[in-house]
Amino acid sequence: MVMLQRLLLLLFLTRCVTPAVAQTAAPSFTFMDYQRSFPVFNDAMKRKEDTLMKQFEEKKLEWPARYVYIRSFKYDSQLEVWVKHEKNDVYKLFKTYKVCALAGTLGPKRMQGDYQVPEGFYYINEFNPRSTYHLSLGLNYPNPSDRLLGDSLQPGGDIYIHGSCVTTGCIPITDLQIEELYVLAAHAKSQGQDFIPVHIFPINFKNQRSADYLAKYVKDFPEYKGLSDHLRQVYFYFEKRKNLPVIMTNEKGEYVFGDEIKVAADDDGRAPERKMVRRREATPVPFDETELVNSVNKLPVYPGGSTAFQQFLDDLSKKLTAFLPGDTKKTFITVEYIVNRDGKVILPKVLKGANNEMNNLIIEKFEAMPLWTPAVRLEKNVPIRLKQTIYVEMP
Q: Under a CB-based contact definition with an 8 Å cutoff, are residues 205 and 74 in contact?
């Protein structure tokens, strides 16, 4: 009888206690918990959080910021950090950091390997506490505009704000500065700001020296005016409102805004007068690439021979110098093309080293070449793919 009572008691406890245990929620593992699991971030928190709290207190800002906005100026080598506590508040400037290294020139990033820092409207899409560059915040490059206007196959990627003061197209600041910015952004992320905006401008439009430089650049590269005008509009909108407009991309890859953006630099809401030059692709032609050969008995010959072909390249190189960006004095451009069995050059493609204007001129000139003497293999004309380097240098 005693044994039966014990069994009944055990059964009762099992039925009563087990569901209660099952219903107890496991502790949640938050974004900040995950970041703290990495020593570099954990050490940064220990070093920077108290300091940041004091800096916020001195500037009469509420800690931690729930909203962060970052804007960077390429030519001025500056990165500004703006913060606010509530959605309907206006942003206030917290700090300006010096961008300690710079790659490329003014103008957007359009292809992998061009060493350009992007220009446009982005957001943080990655927190990397294991970065080779101490800590890094990834940007969503290429954004929808970049995908439409940049190289369709190799637009590039892996653009970060990071430490270590080295760059091949990113935005580098010092290790101590990236620790501050990373901690600020992590707090905002943990409080619900999933899309921390990062706007990258060619210049600080209120700096007259920078504005003069941009005006000269646009005069040399008028196709850049459309994008620079859009960037100017957003800059001055923020300057007047201390909040951000809604920014979208149309089917052409151009940035578009609501009516409220009509507080442009000239205060008249004028639309951009010129648009960015789109990257041209070779004219599609029917061609079976399985016909291509790797070895031939005779290579194709440009009409007039190698001397005439070199003259063609020299003439093209001179025309391309007009499109060298900014302070760039020289570049190497790699072009791939096919000489088919009839001796016609088809499907030329710029692999690297050229901006959109250069690319378009090269495609035009290669497609307009006269017929070559085709390659020969086993006494038959065959198509072959060739590569050519074009050296472009200012005189």
A: no
Same domain assignment for residues 342 and 204: no
Domain range spanning residue 374? Answer: 289-393
Rounded-to-integer distance, Cα 359 and Cα 309, Å: 19
Nearest to 144 by CA among 249, 279, 242: 249
Q: Say which CATH number the domain at 351 has.
A: 3.30.2420
Residue 271 within any structural domain of the chain:
no
Residues 190 and 332 in one domain: no
Alpha-carbon distance values, 358 to 315, 321, 332, 372 (Å)? 13, 9, 11, 23
Rounded distance between C-alpha atoms, residue 191 and residue 152, angstroms? 36
Q: How far is CA 261 from the centre of its chain?
A: 24
User: Which residue bears the tokens 């954990």?
Assistant: 42
What is the spatial distance between Cα 146 and Cα 215, in angstroms, rounded to a whole number? Answer: 23
- Segment 162-219, tens digit of pLDDT: 998 877 778 999 999 999 999 999 999 999 999 999 999 999 999 999 999 999 999 9
Kindly report, residue by residue over 235-247, the tens digit of the pLDDT: 999 999 999 988 8
Longest alpha-carbon distance in the chain: 114
Provide CB contacts within 8 A for 333, sequence distance 6+: 320, 350, 352, 353, 354, 358, 362, 389, 390, 391, 392
Q: Are 339 and 375 in contact (CB under 8 A)?
A: yes
76 and 169 share one domain: yes
